[in-house]
Structure of 3-phosphoshikimate 1-carboxyvinyltransferase:
Amino acid sequence: MSHAHGLASPVTSRPGTALKGRLRVPGDKSISHRSMIFGLLSIGETRVEGLLEGDDVLRTAEACRALGATITREGPGRWRIVGVGIGGLTEPSDALDFGNAGTGSRLMMGVAGSHPITTTFDGDASLRKRPMRRILDPLVKMGVTVVSEAEGGRVPLTLRGPRETIPITYETPAASAQIKSAILLAGLNSPGLTTVIEREATRDHTERMLRHFGAKVEVKPHGEDGRAITLQGQPELRGSTVVVPTDPSSAAFPLVAALITPGSDIILEGVMMNPLRTGLITTLLEMGASIERLNERDEGGETVADLRVRSSRLTGVTVPAARAPAMIDEYPILAVAASFAEGVTRMQGLHELRVKESDRLAAVAAGLAEAGVQYEIEGDDLIVHGSNGKVRGGGKPVATHLDHRIAMAFLVMGLATQEPMTVDDGAMIATSFPTFIPLMRELGATIQD
Protein backbone atom coordinates (compact mmCIF):
# COMPACT_ATOMS: atom_id res chain seq x y z
CA MET A 1 0.00 0.00 0.00
CA SER A 2 1.16 3.52 -0.67
CA HIS A 3 1.82 6.00 2.11
CA ALA A 4 -1.12 8.08 3.34
CA HIS A 5 0.13 11.10 1.36
CA GLY A 6 0.64 9.19 -1.90
CA LEU A 7 -1.75 7.74 -4.47
CA ALA A 8 -4.98 6.13 -3.30
CA SER A 9 -4.75 2.35 -3.01
CA PRO A 10 -8.16 0.61 -3.07
CA VAL A 11 -8.58 -2.55 -0.95
CA THR A 12 -11.22 -5.28 -1.38
CA SER A 13 -12.53 -7.83 1.11
CA ARG A 14 -14.73 -10.80 0.19
CA PRO A 15 -16.73 -13.44 2.01
CA GLY A 16 -14.80 -16.67 2.58
CA THR A 17 -14.10 -19.05 5.41
CA ALA A 18 -14.69 -18.83 9.16
CA LEU A 19 -12.07 -16.88 11.13
CA LYS A 20 -9.94 -19.00 13.50
CA GLY A 21 -6.87 -18.41 15.66
CA ARG A 22 -5.31 -16.03 18.17
CA LEU A 23 -4.00 -12.55 17.62
CA ARG A 24 -2.66 -9.60 19.56
CA VAL A 25 -3.63 -6.24 18.09
CA PRO A 26 -1.16 -3.32 18.36
CA GLY A 27 -0.68 -1.23 21.49
CA ASP A 28 -3.27 1.35 22.52
CA LYS A 29 -2.90 4.59 20.60
CA SER A 30 -4.05 6.85 23.46
CA ILE A 31 -1.50 5.38 25.89
CA SER A 32 1.25 5.30 23.23
CA HIS A 33 0.88 9.06 22.57
CA ARG A 34 0.87 9.80 26.29
CA SER A 35 3.89 7.61 27.07
CA MET A 36 5.98 9.74 24.68
CA ILE A 37 4.63 13.01 26.13
CA PHE A 38 5.17 11.95 29.76
CA GLY A 39 8.65 10.73 28.86
CA LEU A 40 9.42 14.22 27.52
CA LEU A 41 8.07 15.92 30.69
CA SER A 42 9.89 13.61 33.14
CA ILE A 43 13.34 13.77 34.63
CA GLY A 44 15.41 10.70 33.80
CA GLU A 45 14.67 7.69 31.64
CA THR A 46 11.30 6.32 30.55
CA ARG A 47 11.07 2.88 28.93
CA VAL A 48 8.05 1.93 26.84
CA GLU A 49 7.12 -1.60 25.79
CA GLY A 50 4.40 -2.45 23.26
CA LEU A 51 4.26 1.04 21.73
CA LEU A 52 1.93 1.38 18.75
CA GLU A 53 4.34 2.20 15.93
CA GLY A 54 1.73 3.78 13.66
CA ASP A 55 2.27 7.07 11.86
CA ASP A 56 0.25 9.11 14.41
CA VAL A 57 2.36 8.04 17.40
CA LEU A 58 5.65 8.41 15.48
CA ARG A 59 4.64 12.03 14.73
CA THR A 60 4.18 12.64 18.46
CA ALA A 61 7.62 11.08 19.07
CA GLU A 62 9.15 13.46 16.50
CA ALA A 63 7.45 16.43 18.20
CA CYS A 64 8.87 15.34 21.58
CA ARG A 65 12.33 15.14 20.00
CA ALA A 66 11.91 18.64 18.58
CA LEU A 67 11.03 19.89 22.09
CA GLY A 68 14.22 18.44 23.61
CA ALA A 69 13.69 14.75 24.46
CA THR A 70 16.26 12.11 23.48
CA ILE A 71 14.31 9.21 21.99
CA THR A 72 15.70 5.89 20.73
CA ARG A 73 13.97 2.80 19.39
CA GLU A 74 15.49 -0.31 20.93
CA GLY A 75 13.40 -2.95 19.12
CA PRO A 76 9.83 -3.60 17.92
CA GLY A 77 7.57 -1.57 20.24
CA ARG A 78 10.49 -0.92 22.67
CA TRP A 79 11.49 2.72 23.12
CA ARG A 80 13.70 4.70 25.49
CA ILE A 81 12.98 8.37 26.24
CA VAL A 82 15.22 10.70 28.23
CA GLY A 83 13.11 13.68 29.23
CA VAL A 84 13.85 17.34 29.95
CA GLY A 85 11.32 17.79 32.77
CA ILE A 86 8.44 20.22 33.17
CA GLY A 87 9.64 23.73 32.28
CA GLY A 88 12.64 22.38 30.36
CA LEU A 89 11.25 22.35 26.79
CA THR A 90 13.37 23.86 24.01
CA GLU A 91 11.81 25.94 21.24
CA PRO A 92 11.50 23.83 18.05
CA SER A 93 13.28 25.18 14.96
CA ASP A 94 10.49 24.09 12.57
CA ALA A 95 6.72 23.56 12.64
CA LEU A 96 5.62 20.34 14.37
CA ASP A 97 3.95 18.28 11.61
CA PHE A 98 1.42 15.89 13.17
CA GLY A 99 0.22 14.30 9.92
CA ASN A 100 -3.23 12.91 10.71
CA ALA A 101 -2.75 12.80 14.51
CA GLY A 102 -5.60 14.68 16.19
CA THR A 103 -4.73 13.35 19.65
CA GLY A 104 -1.02 14.08 19.39
CA SER A 105 -1.52 17.63 18.09
CA ARG A 106 -4.16 18.57 20.68
CA LEU A 107 -2.32 17.14 23.68
CA MET A 108 0.92 18.76 22.57
CA MET A 109 -0.80 22.16 22.34
CA GLY A 110 -1.32 21.89 26.10
CA VAL A 111 2.29 20.80 26.65
CA ALA A 112 4.13 23.31 24.44
CA GLY A 113 1.59 26.12 24.90
CA SER A 114 2.24 26.19 28.65
CA HIS A 115 5.98 26.86 28.17
CA PRO A 116 7.57 30.25 27.33
CA ILE A 117 8.39 29.19 23.75
CA THR A 118 6.80 29.75 20.34
CA THR A 119 5.54 26.59 18.62
CA THR A 120 3.82 26.07 15.25
CA PHE A 121 1.48 23.10 14.73
CA ASP A 122 0.56 21.68 11.32
CA GLY A 123 -0.70 18.46 9.74
CA ASP A 124 -2.09 16.81 6.63
CA ALA A 125 -5.20 17.83 4.67
CA SER A 126 -7.45 15.89 7.03
CA LEU A 127 -5.98 17.42 10.22
CA ARG A 128 -6.19 20.90 8.69
CA LYS A 129 -9.98 20.49 8.55
CA ARG A 130 -10.36 19.57 12.23
CA PRO A 131 -11.46 22.25 14.72
CA MET A 132 -8.96 23.21 17.43
CA ARG A 133 -10.86 26.16 18.93
CA ARG A 134 -12.16 24.19 21.92
CA ILE A 135 -8.57 23.32 22.85
CA LEU A 136 -7.37 26.89 22.33
CA ASP A 137 -10.12 28.58 24.40
CA PRO A 138 -9.04 27.15 27.79
CA LEU A 139 -5.34 27.55 26.90
CA VAL A 140 -5.91 31.27 26.24
CA LYS A 141 -7.48 31.52 29.72
CA MET A 142 -4.23 30.02 31.06
CA GLY A 143 -2.20 32.80 29.43
CA VAL A 144 -1.30 31.20 26.08
CA THR A 145 -1.19 33.57 23.06
CA VAL A 146 -2.53 32.35 19.71
CA VAL A 147 -0.06 34.15 17.42
CA SER A 148 -1.68 32.94 14.19
CA GLU A 149 -4.24 30.33 13.10
CA ALA A 150 -5.97 29.11 9.96
CA GLU A 151 -9.63 30.08 9.55
CA GLY A 152 -11.90 28.75 12.31
CA GLY A 153 -9.07 27.98 14.75
CA ARG A 154 -7.50 25.26 12.61
CA VAL A 155 -3.90 24.28 11.90
CA PRO A 156 -1.47 25.59 10.82
CA LEU A 157 -1.46 27.61 14.03
CA THR A 158 1.24 29.13 16.22
CA LEU A 159 1.16 29.37 20.03
CA ARG A 160 3.38 31.43 22.33
CA GLY A 161 3.44 30.40 25.97
CA PRO A 162 3.45 32.76 28.95
CA ARG A 163 6.30 33.23 31.42
CA GLU A 164 4.06 31.54 33.97
CA THR A 165 0.90 29.59 33.12
CA ILE A 166 -2.23 30.54 35.08
CA PRO A 167 -4.06 27.69 36.89
CA ILE A 168 -7.78 27.60 36.03
CA THR A 169 -11.00 25.76 36.81
CA TYR A 170 -12.67 24.84 33.51
CA GLU A 171 -15.87 23.01 32.64
CA THR A 172 -15.48 21.30 29.26
CA PRO A 173 -18.24 22.21 26.75
CA ALA A 174 -18.25 18.66 25.32
CA ALA A 175 -17.32 15.20 26.59
CA SER A 176 -13.76 15.08 25.25
CA ALA A 177 -10.72 13.40 26.75
CA GLN A 178 -8.56 15.50 24.43
CA ILE A 179 -9.80 18.83 25.83
CA LYS A 180 -9.43 17.56 29.40
CA SER A 181 -5.95 16.19 28.75
CA ALA A 182 -4.67 19.34 27.02
CA ILE A 183 -5.72 21.44 30.05
CA LEU A 184 -4.22 19.01 32.59
CA LEU A 185 -0.95 18.83 30.62
CA ALA A 186 -0.82 22.64 30.51
CA GLY A 187 -1.59 22.67 34.25
CA LEU A 188 1.60 20.69 34.92
CA ASN A 189 3.62 23.86 34.25
CA SER A 190 1.33 26.07 36.33
CA PRO A 191 1.63 26.95 40.03
CA GLY A 192 -1.32 25.91 42.18
CA LEU A 193 -4.35 23.80 41.28
CA THR A 194 -5.82 23.23 37.82
CA THR A 195 -9.31 21.69 37.81
CA VAL A 196 -11.24 20.24 34.87
CA ILE A 197 -14.95 19.57 35.33
CA GLU A 198 -16.64 17.18 32.90
CA ARG A 199 -20.38 16.53 32.88
CA GLU A 200 -19.81 13.03 31.46
CA ALA A 201 -16.78 10.94 32.41
CA THR A 202 -14.36 10.48 29.48
CA ARG A 203 -11.43 8.07 29.14
CA ASP A 204 -9.05 8.61 32.05
CA HIS A 205 -5.65 7.55 30.66
CA THR A 206 -4.12 10.97 31.33
CA GLU A 207 -5.12 10.93 35.01
CA ARG A 208 -3.81 7.37 35.45
CA MET A 209 -0.53 8.20 33.74
CA LEU A 210 -0.08 11.45 35.70
CA ARG A 211 -0.20 9.34 38.88
CA HIS A 212 2.06 6.67 37.36
CA PHE A 213 4.76 9.35 36.78
CA GLY A 214 4.36 10.91 40.24
CA ALA A 215 1.88 13.81 39.92
CA LYS A 216 -0.83 14.47 42.53
CA VAL A 217 -4.29 14.14 40.97
CA GLU A 218 -7.64 14.11 42.79
CA VAL A 219 -10.78 12.84 41.06
CA LYS A 220 -14.22 13.48 42.60
CA PRO A 221 -17.73 12.75 41.30
CA HIS A 222 -19.50 15.80 39.85
CA GLY A 223 -23.22 15.78 39.19
CA GLU A 224 -24.89 12.65 37.89
CA ASP A 225 -22.31 11.24 35.46
CA GLY A 226 -19.44 13.72 35.66
CA ARG A 227 -16.15 14.18 37.48
CA ALA A 228 -13.94 16.99 38.72
CA ILE A 229 -10.24 16.33 38.20
CA THR A 230 -7.78 18.49 40.17
CA LEU A 231 -4.04 18.51 39.46
CA GLN A 232 -1.33 19.97 41.72
CA GLY A 233 0.90 21.99 39.39
CA GLN A 234 4.68 21.91 38.96
CA PRO A 235 5.36 18.38 40.26
CA GLU A 236 8.63 16.70 39.44
CA LEU A 237 7.71 13.82 37.18
CA ARG A 238 10.10 10.86 37.32
CA GLY A 239 10.91 8.62 34.37
CA SER A 240 9.03 5.33 34.54
CA THR A 241 8.29 2.11 32.68
CA VAL A 242 5.10 1.90 30.62
CA VAL A 243 3.75 -1.40 29.27
CA VAL A 244 1.19 -0.38 26.65
CA PRO A 245 -1.93 -2.61 26.69
CA THR A 246 -3.53 -3.48 23.35
CA ASP A 247 -5.95 -0.99 21.84
CA PRO A 248 -9.65 -1.82 22.35
CA SER A 249 -10.49 0.45 19.39
CA SER A 250 -8.28 -1.71 17.14
CA ALA A 251 -9.46 -4.98 18.72
CA ALA A 252 -13.00 -3.93 17.74
CA PHE A 253 -12.38 -4.80 14.07
CA PRO A 254 -11.36 -8.50 14.36
CA LEU A 255 -13.88 -8.85 17.21
CA VAL A 256 -16.85 -7.78 15.05
CA ALA A 257 -15.42 -9.72 12.08
CA ALA A 258 -15.62 -12.92 14.16
CA LEU A 259 -19.17 -12.14 15.36
CA ILE A 260 -20.57 -11.67 11.83
CA THR A 261 -18.59 -14.35 9.94
CA PRO A 262 -20.34 -17.73 10.36
CA GLY A 263 -18.39 -20.44 12.22
CA SER A 264 -15.72 -18.08 13.57
CA ASP A 265 -13.93 -18.63 16.90
CA ILE A 266 -10.95 -16.41 17.78
CA ILE A 267 -9.00 -15.21 20.83
CA LEU A 268 -7.84 -11.59 21.11
CA GLU A 269 -4.92 -11.34 23.54
CA GLY A 270 -4.36 -8.66 26.20
CA VAL A 271 -7.22 -6.28 25.37
CA MET A 272 -7.54 -3.25 27.66
CA MET A 273 -10.67 -3.48 29.84
CA ASN A 274 -10.70 0.08 31.20
CA PRO A 275 -14.45 0.65 31.87
CA LEU A 276 -14.26 4.01 30.09
CA ARG A 277 -13.16 2.21 26.89
CA THR A 278 -15.41 -0.87 26.81
CA GLY A 279 -18.68 0.68 25.61
CA LEU A 280 -18.59 -1.38 22.40
CA ILE A 281 -18.19 -4.67 24.27
CA THR A 282 -21.04 -3.71 26.63
CA THR A 283 -23.24 -2.95 23.61
CA LEU A 284 -22.35 -6.13 21.71
CA LEU A 285 -23.07 -8.25 24.80
CA GLU A 286 -26.51 -6.59 25.01
CA MET A 287 -26.99 -7.58 21.33
CA GLY A 288 -26.27 -11.23 22.19
CA ALA A 289 -22.59 -11.49 21.25
CA SER A 290 -20.55 -14.42 22.52
CA ILE A 291 -17.55 -12.64 24.11
CA GLU A 292 -15.78 -14.33 27.04
CA ARG A 293 -13.19 -12.58 29.25
CA LEU A 294 -10.26 -14.87 30.10
CA ASN A 295 -7.15 -14.35 32.26
CA GLU A 296 -7.89 -10.83 33.57
CA ARG A 297 -4.73 -9.12 34.82
CA ASP A 298 -3.02 -5.76 35.32
CA GLU A 299 -0.59 -4.22 32.80
CA GLY A 300 0.80 -0.68 33.13
CA GLY A 301 -1.92 0.51 35.51
CA GLU A 302 -4.73 -0.83 33.27
CA THR A 303 -6.83 -4.01 33.54
CA VAL A 304 -6.46 -6.29 30.50
CA ALA A 305 -8.02 -9.62 29.49
CA ASP A 306 -7.95 -12.14 26.66
CA LEU A 307 -11.27 -12.23 24.79
CA ARG A 308 -12.72 -15.36 23.18
CA VAL A 309 -15.14 -14.30 20.44
CA ARG A 310 -17.46 -16.64 18.52
CA SER A 311 -19.85 -15.93 15.67
CA SER A 312 -23.22 -14.91 17.09
CA ARG A 313 -26.78 -14.04 16.14
CA LEU A 314 -27.14 -10.39 17.10
CA THR A 315 -30.30 -8.45 17.96
CA GLY A 316 -30.78 -4.70 17.55
CA VAL A 317 -30.61 -2.48 20.67
CA THR A 318 -30.77 1.20 21.61
CA VAL A 319 -27.35 2.60 22.54
CA PRO A 320 -27.75 5.53 24.98
CA ALA A 321 -25.96 8.83 24.32
CA ALA A 322 -24.27 8.56 27.75
CA ARG A 323 -22.23 5.63 26.40
CA ALA A 324 -20.75 7.65 23.53
CA PRO A 325 -17.59 8.82 25.37
CA ALA A 326 -16.69 5.17 26.14
CA MET A 327 -16.96 4.09 22.49
CA ILE A 328 -16.75 7.18 20.29
CA ASP A 329 -14.24 5.53 17.90
CA GLU A 330 -16.23 2.29 17.67
CA TYR A 331 -19.48 3.52 16.10
CA PRO A 332 -18.40 2.79 12.49
CA ILE A 333 -17.74 -0.87 13.34
CA LEU A 334 -20.87 -1.05 15.54
CA ALA A 335 -22.90 0.15 12.54
CA VAL A 336 -21.43 -2.81 10.60
CA ALA A 337 -22.42 -5.25 13.39
CA ALA A 338 -25.89 -3.68 13.50
CA SER A 339 -26.28 -4.30 9.74
CA PHE A 340 -26.11 -8.07 10.38
CA ALA A 341 -28.37 -8.03 13.47
CA GLU A 342 -32.05 -8.86 13.64
CA GLY A 343 -34.15 -5.73 14.12
CA VAL A 344 -33.25 -2.07 14.55
CA THR A 345 -30.22 -0.56 16.34
CA ARG A 346 -30.47 3.08 17.36
CA MET A 347 -27.22 4.86 18.30
CA GLN A 348 -28.03 8.07 20.14
CA GLY A 349 -26.10 11.32 20.54
CA LEU A 350 -23.35 10.98 17.92
CA HIS A 351 -22.52 14.68 17.55
CA GLU A 352 -18.81 14.04 18.27
CA LEU A 353 -18.62 11.77 15.19
CA ARG A 354 -19.10 14.81 12.97
CA VAL A 355 -15.73 16.29 14.03
CA LYS A 356 -13.48 13.22 13.84
CA GLU A 357 -10.94 12.46 11.05
CA SER A 358 -13.89 12.90 8.69
CA ASP A 359 -17.58 13.58 9.29
CA ARG A 360 -17.77 9.95 10.41
CA LEU A 361 -21.55 9.94 10.67
CA ALA A 362 -21.95 10.93 7.01
CA ALA A 363 -19.15 8.57 5.93
CA VAL A 364 -20.70 5.58 7.76
CA ALA A 365 -24.11 6.35 6.28
CA ALA A 366 -22.68 6.52 2.74
CA GLY A 367 -20.92 3.16 3.21
CA LEU A 368 -24.09 1.52 4.53
CA ALA A 369 -25.95 2.81 1.48
CA GLU A 370 -23.37 1.24 -0.89
CA ALA A 371 -23.82 -2.11 0.89
CA GLY A 372 -27.62 -1.97 0.57
CA VAL A 373 -28.26 -1.45 4.29
CA GLN A 374 -31.29 0.63 5.31
CA TYR A 375 -30.60 3.44 7.77
CA GLU A 376 -31.82 6.84 8.90
CA ILE A 377 -30.09 9.79 10.54
CA GLU A 378 -32.37 11.70 12.93
CA GLY A 379 -30.56 14.66 14.45
CA ASP A 380 -27.45 13.13 16.02
CA ASP A 381 -28.90 9.59 16.06
CA LEU A 382 -27.98 6.85 13.59
CA ILE A 383 -30.64 4.17 13.09
CA VAL A 384 -29.58 0.96 11.32
CA HIS A 385 -32.09 -1.63 10.10
CA GLY A 386 -30.52 -5.05 10.49
CA SER A 387 -30.86 -7.70 7.78
CA ASN A 388 -30.60 -10.78 10.01
CA GLY A 389 -27.22 -11.77 8.61
CA LYS A 390 -27.96 -11.16 4.92
CA VAL A 391 -26.20 -7.98 3.81
CA ARG A 392 -25.84 -7.54 0.06
CA GLY A 393 -22.51 -5.68 -0.07
CA GLY A 394 -21.04 -4.69 -3.42
CA GLY A 395 -21.81 -1.18 -4.58
CA LYS A 396 -19.24 1.44 -5.54
CA PRO A 397 -16.01 1.66 -3.51
CA VAL A 398 -16.73 3.19 -0.10
CA ALA A 399 -15.27 6.72 0.24
CA THR A 400 -13.00 6.63 3.31
CA HIS A 401 -12.19 10.40 3.41
CA LEU A 402 -8.67 9.53 4.70
CA ASP A 403 -10.30 7.93 7.76
CA HIS A 404 -8.65 4.68 8.93
CA ARG A 405 -11.68 3.52 10.95
CA ILE A 406 -14.08 3.89 8.01
CA ALA A 407 -11.67 1.85 5.86
CA MET A 408 -11.33 -0.98 8.39
CA ALA A 409 -15.05 -1.08 9.26
CA PHE A 410 -16.17 -1.66 5.67
CA LEU A 411 -13.38 -4.17 4.98
CA VAL A 412 -14.70 -6.15 7.97
CA MET A 413 -18.22 -5.88 6.54
CA GLY A 414 -17.07 -7.40 3.24
CA LEU A 415 -15.98 -10.61 5.02
CA ALA A 416 -19.64 -11.52 5.60
CA THR A 417 -21.60 -9.76 2.82
CA GLN A 418 -22.97 -11.58 -0.22
CA GLU A 419 -20.81 -9.53 -2.61
CA PRO A 420 -17.25 -8.17 -2.00
CA MET A 421 -16.75 -4.71 -0.50
CA THR A 422 -14.10 -2.27 -1.71
CA VAL A 423 -12.82 0.86 0.04
CA ASP A 424 -11.33 3.62 -2.10
CA ASP A 425 -8.08 3.84 -0.11
CA GLY A 426 -6.46 1.65 2.53
CA ALA A 427 -3.19 3.57 2.91
CA MET A 428 -4.22 5.49 6.03
CA ILE A 429 -4.98 2.29 7.99
CA ALA A 430 -1.27 2.54 8.92
CA THR A 431 -1.99 5.54 11.18
CA SER A 432 -3.53 3.32 13.88
CA PHE A 433 -3.28 -0.37 12.89
CA PRO A 434 -0.40 -0.94 10.45
CA THR A 435 -0.67 -4.76 10.69
CA PHE A 436 -4.47 -4.92 10.19
CA ILE A 437 -4.49 -6.66 6.79
CA PRO A 438 -1.78 -9.31 7.50
CA LEU A 439 -3.27 -10.13 10.93
CA MET A 440 -6.77 -10.53 9.46
CA ARG A 441 -5.36 -12.78 6.73
CA GLU A 442 -3.73 -14.97 9.41
CA LEU A 443 -7.23 -15.56 10.83
CA GLY A 444 -8.44 -16.61 7.38
CA ALA A 445 -9.86 -13.34 6.01
CA THR A 446 -9.76 -12.69 2.25
CA ILE A 447 -8.51 -9.12 1.80
CA GLN A 448 -6.74 -7.98 -1.37
CA ASP A 449 -4.74 -4.75 -1.58
